[in-house]
Design goal:
The complex is a heterodimer of chains A (about 450) and B (about 475). With about 450 residues, chain A is an all-alpha fold. Helices cover about 75% and strands about 0% of the residues of chain A. The longest helix of chain B has about 35 residues. Chain B folds into two domains: about 325 residues, Formate dehydrogenase/DMSO reductase domain (Formate dehydrogenase/DMSO reductase fold, Up-down Bundle); about 140 residues, Orthogonal Bundle (Cytochrome Bc1 Complex, Chain D, domain 2). The chains are: A mainly alpha (about 450), B mainly alpha (about 475). Chain B: Keywords: Heme, Iron, Membrane, Metal-binding, Transmembrane, Transmembrane helix. Chain B: This is Cytochrome c. Chain B: GO terms for molecular function: electron transfer activity; heme binding; metal ion binding.
Chain lengths: ~450, ~475
């Protein structure tokens, strides 16, 4: 009892600052757990290619700048650049499934956050388009702009800047949707960006991008099928792979600083033991991967890739657990609000059904019930004509008295005009046709009009 | 009314969706569905013409490759992003309707997504392996087969999306049977698909011819041959497209077709409807003329001579999309949800208790003499702002001035008499949802707009005001007290 009271009390407090909208009153298309699995898995597939696109363009930029001194790195940049345009296409197309799933699972939260940051949210479309076009321009002008490296690198730098900015918009939205209690305080994108937790998560994401791209390129440039020696003369496959492993390892270590920071800055409402456990398991799974990378870097050159399969497996587990942790937090954080929303939706549906069953009497029809013989025609006139025509003087169209003077004795002519009016006269708007009126309605209407004196 | 209202007060909210969607349709039809089979066909011709000793004619092949490069770059950038942009813009402007549609069409859209992923993977394989495949005849033939696969997949993607579009145009089926099947079986489905297929082919062909004139100079070896193939392609599809356009027009449900003249005629683009009547035969005959001319006098074809029919053909598709969007009105989901995002079945409740009482975001839940302007603004935002602006495109002040005289002071009583009945005459308008007090507040606000030109900020800049009188308790209480 007292628990119930305090629960209610808490809910009331929550509401006093928090909007509680109604949900869309339609059933979910699939069981909720299945939608959640689809959301988490499809999101992972999407975000990995986003990581590769962002990390790839950052590394291309780095290699190309380094390539100004050492020509071999320019070649490396070109080789990495070729992967970006493929990865970016997959990133976009794989983004649609999680977008659909989050739309259906978190309809109200997601759309509300989108609307509150609306201009920046829709700016994603032109911004990403521009960044994509720039990456193509960069890739296809590599040889043409051979002697104009400054310009060529600037093209990529601009694309990288856009790529770096886009995740901030997404993170701001995904963060804002978790906190309906903050919605009332938000005035545009910048204020939503300033909510705690956006920047720590952003840095966490950037590091993940570099780690994943490091591992991807480690494999891509290390494949047997990849004819490394035909592209590069002085730097060896081992040099590059060692650098890439070091990058992946370095940022993974840094994640152990950023991770706790993200957790600390998370608003407390969704932090529960289930979250902590999932996150800790995820972090633990990364440890052996980091150990194997370390062994690879410090071991013999020919054995650098020995444990790569195990590294990928452990890291996959980490990523899966971290993505699940994300969902656990979202689910924890929104649970009370979702419950309120469901109650409100149910109550509204009940009220709406009741009002449908007992509609309020329509004023216009009751007025005419008290009637003269012309009442039925007057009702049709009231509903269809009275907004634009009155007995005398112009309202929108000409007065009824004028209709009488034109059509007296020409009932079919008047009917025809109402069904399909002819050309408008100077200074008047065109009258719309009323083909939806039945022959009977039309007859009583025209009788009524022509009876006006 | 349960979502913060994003609002573009000059551009008009619908315009944002329309702009993004039309660019996407142009690219999808003209540079994918209709273009890729055309390119694959030309690639195949190159192999056939090369004779036994060569795999393909290198110069011919390179020309076809360059055309494909243009389509590849555009489809994977602007094409892909406008596709996502339709989701983004619909979610901003029409959250209740797109949210409802996704609940029903999740599975359809998921399947469409799978074909879409396949399409993107195939287009990358097709384009990125083009040069490598020129090393052996076997690889080249496999490459061409990829091209045909890709053509089929783009077409299948279109088949699914047309089902969803067809569903929204078929009135009444939401309430009786809201499943995907009714999207495929409704009377508009096949005519629409039949229209889109040849029209896409015409667009692809004409766009291809345009690229030929850009990429070749008048003396280059293959120019005339490529142009003539393009001409044969469009001449083959253009008559089908014309017939299909007529069938599609006739298949539109009768009530909706009635709407077309008012719908198109009363927009600010005054000659829209006339344009429709001229542009259909006009665009098709331009394309046919270009085709015939090219067959007989290929040497004299200039870029501008292709550009004109190309623009006309895109306009032809564009105007059909515009009309298709409009004939949905007054609904956004036929028979279920009006274009103001309110459900038809909730109208009795709103009429009885007022709209504001149930609005999550509003400055007050009841109209009083003191708050008339701010509640009028709320009512406008909730029931008019999806289609009307205050002083921009299709502005509420302008539509009333057009009725009562441009520049004349608006009369609150006349507007209050007009609004409750407007849906009878203007059948594309949803009925006014609120009660009499809210009507009074709305007309007072409209008059205020005319006098002051005050702009209306959407939630994206002004934020939201949580309705002070709207809490779960109050609704629950009122249920219990009945």
């Amino acid at each position: 009892m007292s628990y119930n009271y305090s629960m209610n009390h808490m809910l009331t407090l929550l509401q006093s600052v928090t909007p509680v909208p109604r949900d869309i009153p339609l059933a979910l298309p699939l069981p909720e757990w299945l939608l959640v699995v689809l959301l988490v898995v499809s999101f992972l597939a999407h975000i990995i290619f986003v990581n590769l696109m962002l990390g790839g363009s950052l590394l291309t930029l780095w290699a190309q700048v380094k390539g100004l001194k050492n020509k071999e790195y320019d070649t490396l940049a070109y080789e990495i650049a070729k992967t970006i345009t493929v990865n970016k296409s997959l990133a976009v197309v794989l983004g649609v499934a999680p977008l659909l799933s989050i739309n259906v699972l978190y309809t109200v939260y997601f759309y509300s956050a989108n609307a509150l940051t609306g201009l920046m949210w829709i700016a994603i479309v032109p911004l990403v388009t521009a960044a994509f076009l720039l990456t193509y321009l960069h890739k296809y002008t590599w040889h043409k702009l051979e002697d104009n490296k400054g310009l060529h690198i600037s093209i990529l730098a601009l694309a990288v800047l856009i790529f770096l900015f886009i995740p901030l918009i997404f993170l701001t939205n995904i963060n804002l949707m978790l906190f309906p209690e903050k919605w009332g305080t938000i005035k545009g994108f910048m204020s939503a960006l300033a909510l705690p937790n956006v920047f720590p998560r952003y840095l966490h994401f950037l590091c993940a991008s570099l780690a994943i791209t490091g591992l991807f390129l480690f494999w891509y440039l290390g494949r047997n099928r990849y004819a490394f020696e035909t592209h590069f003369k002085s730097i060896t496959r081992y040099d590059i792979r060692k650098q890439l492993y070091s990058l992946a390892l370095g940022v993974s270590v840094f994640q152990f600083v950023l991770g706790p920071l993200v957790l600390i800055t998370l608003p407390a409402k969704g932090v529960q033991w289930n979250l902590i456990i999932v996150i800790l398991c995820g972090a633990t799974a990364a440890l052996p991967a980091m150990y194997w990378m370390w062994k690879g870097i410090t071991g013999k050159p020919e054995e650098i890739g020995m444990n790569f399969g195990k590294v990928i497996m452990a890291m996959t587990l980490t990523v899966l657990l971290m993505a699940s942790g994300r969902h656990v937090y979202r689910s924890n954080a929104l649970a009370p609000h979702k419950k309120l929303m469901a109650e409100k939706t149910k109550a509204f549906e009940r009220l709406s059904a009741e009002a449908r069953a007992h509609p309020a009497p329509d004023e216009s029809t009751t007025a005419q019930a008290s009637g003269t013989p012309a009442a039925p025609g007057a009702a049709v006139f009231q509903a269809n004509c009275a907004s634009c025509h009155k007995k005398e003087g112009r309202l929108v169209g000409p007065p009824v008295t004028e209709m009488v003077s034109i059509y007296q004795g020409n009932l079919p002519g008047l009917k025809k005009w109402i069904r399909q009016p002819g050309k408008k006269r100077e200074g008047y708007p065109q009258m719309p046709g009323f083909p939806q009126l039945s022959e009977q309605e039309l007859t009583i209407l025209t009788d009524y009009i022509l009876s006006v004196k | 009314m349960d979502f913060p209202m994003f609002h573009l007060d000059w551009l008009n909210d619908r315009f944002l969706i329309a702009m993004i969607a039309i660019v996407h349709v142009f690219i999808n039809h003209g540079l994918a569905v209709g273009f890729i089979p055309y390119i694959t066909w030309l690639e195949q011709k190159g192999v056939k013409m090369a004779g036994a000793s060569n795999i393909t004619d290198p110069e011919w092949d390179h020309l076809v490759y360059r055309k494909m490069k243009v389509a590849f770059i555009i489809t994977t950038t602007i094409g892909a992003m406008t596709g996502v942009g339709i989701w983004f813009s619909a979610g901003l402007i029409s959250p209740s309707s797109i949210g409802s549609l996704i609940r029903v069409f999740y599975f359809a859209w998921f399947v469409e997504w799978l074909t879409f992923v396949t399409e993107v993977v195939l287009i990358m394989i097709y384009f990125l392996t083009w040069k490598q495949s020129n090393q052996s005849l076997k690889a080249k033939i496999r490459h061409i087969r990829f091209g045909w696969f890709l053509s089929v997949f783009s077409w299948i993607t279109m088949c699914i999306i047309v089902s969803i579009l067809g569903f929204m145009m078929d009135p009444g089926n939401w309430n009786t049977d809201h499943s995907l099947i009714s999207g495929f079986t409704n009377p508009i489905y096949l005519p629409q698909l039949f229209f889109r297929t040849p029209t896409a082919m015409v667009l692809g062909g004409v766009f291809g011819m345009l690229l030929t004139t850009i990429f070749t100079d008048r003396h280059s070896a293959w120019r005339n041959t490529v142009l003539k193939y393009g001409a044969r392609w469009v001449l083959c599809w253009a008559p089908v497209s014309l017939v299909a356009a007529v069938i599609y027009y006739k298949a539109m449900p009768a009530a909706m077709r009635e709407n077309m003249s008012t719908a198109v005629g009363t927009m600010e683009f005054a000659q829209y409807y006339d344009l429709l009547r001229y542009i259909i035969p006009g665009a098709v005959s331009l394309v046919v003329m270009l085709g015939i001319w090219t067959l007989f006098r290929p040497r004299s074809v200039r870029m501008w001579m292709v550009l004109v029919p190309c623009v006309a053909a895109f306009g032809f598709l564009g105007i059909f999309e515009r009309v298709r969007e409009f004939i949905r009105k007054p609904y956004v989901i036929g028979g279920y949800m009006y274009s103001n995002l309110l459900r038809e079945e909730d109208y009795p409740l709103f009429k009885r208790d007022g709209l504001l009482k149930y609005a999550t975001y509003a400055t007050a839940s009841k109209v009083t003499p003191e708050n008339k302007l701010s509640t009028g603004r709320d009512v406008f935002m909730l029931s008019c702002s999806r289609c009307h602006t205050t002083n921009g495109i299709n502005s509420i002040v302008y539509v009333f001035e057009r009725l009562y005289g441009i520049g004349k002071p608006l009369d609150e009583n006349s507007m209050a008499a007009y609004i409750p009945n407007m849906h009878n005459g203007r059948t594309y308008m949803p009925p006014f949802p609120g009660n009499n007090e809210e009507l009074g507040a709305l007309v007072a606000y409209i008059k205020h707009l005319q006098q002051t030109g005050e702009p209306l900020e959407g939630a994206q800049s002004a934020g939201i005001t949580v309705n002070p009188g709207n809490s779960t308790e109050q609704i629950a209480d009122s249920v219990q007290s009945k």
